[in-house]
Amino acid sequence: MENVNIPVALTIAGSDCSGGAGIQADLKTFHDHRVHGLSAVSCIVAETPLEVRHIEQIDSTTFDAQLNILSESYPINAAKTGLLPSVSSIRSAAKTIEQHDIPLVVDPVMIASTGANLLGEDTLHSMTSILLPLATVATPNLPEAEAILERRIKSKDEFVDAARDIAQCYNISCLLKGGHLPGDNECLDVLWHGNQAHHFRHPYLALPSGVHGTGCTLSAAITSGLANNQCMVDAVTHAISYVQKLIRSAHTWEHDHHNIRCLGW
Question: CA torsion, points 84, 90, 96, 98, in degrees to nearest 10?
């Protein structure tokens, strides 16, 4: 049997029991991109695409043990963070990334698809002051960018300015995910990289009711691209196309009067 080494990527995030977001979405995405996926679980989330019911943080000793054994044992080519529910979890993740000089995609998970606020103010401050400066690229959506910048973003011009300001403030690249700006028939995502804006326009696809995990999947796909030595623009271009394909092929289940959907891996 031929021994073929494949890239290794690490996700540091929460576990989604419904399988559509978090670590489960990340590992499915890594597998799709022929990347060996490692996972350090920061918290366990009782959720479906329709509801976040409970979040239980992993004990800090257990969390640190996961990060330590993985970083000591594998040649990690790239990593990503998702939901980090506490200051201590952010500090631990940042320490691992800094010690091992791992390219990092930060998905600054703050607000669930249901609208639930997932972070306290102290945790948000730690994310912006400790984790974002270590990122290779950050992938905030519109509400997350507004929280980071502490200002509203109301137009496409302000949207591009926001991507630039986050990138320049933290000396990183920033992919600002636009979603559907009011009055628009298409989506605009802006990558600020190499001191210039790269615009990604694609037809507006209304998310099927009950789908979540698009942000996790997008950041995991970018992480996969970086692990495979793609340049930033190519990794982002592919990741956006990949998520669009999964939205179009979403799965549907009906149970007890609930209509549940999941991205179409």
Answer: 130
- Tell me, letter by letter, the H, E, C secondary structure of 118-146: CCCHHHHHHHHHHHHHHCCEECCEHHHHH
Cα dist. 88→22, 42, 68, 187 in Å?
19, 10, 15, 36
- pTM of the complete model: 0.92
Cα angle 64, 68, 69 (rounded to 5 degrees) comes to 120
Q: Does domain 8-262 have CATH number 3.40.1190.20?
A: yes
Domain ranges in the chain are 8-262
pLDDT tens track for 128-181: 999 999 999 999 999 899 999 999 998 888 999 999 999 999 999 999 998 656
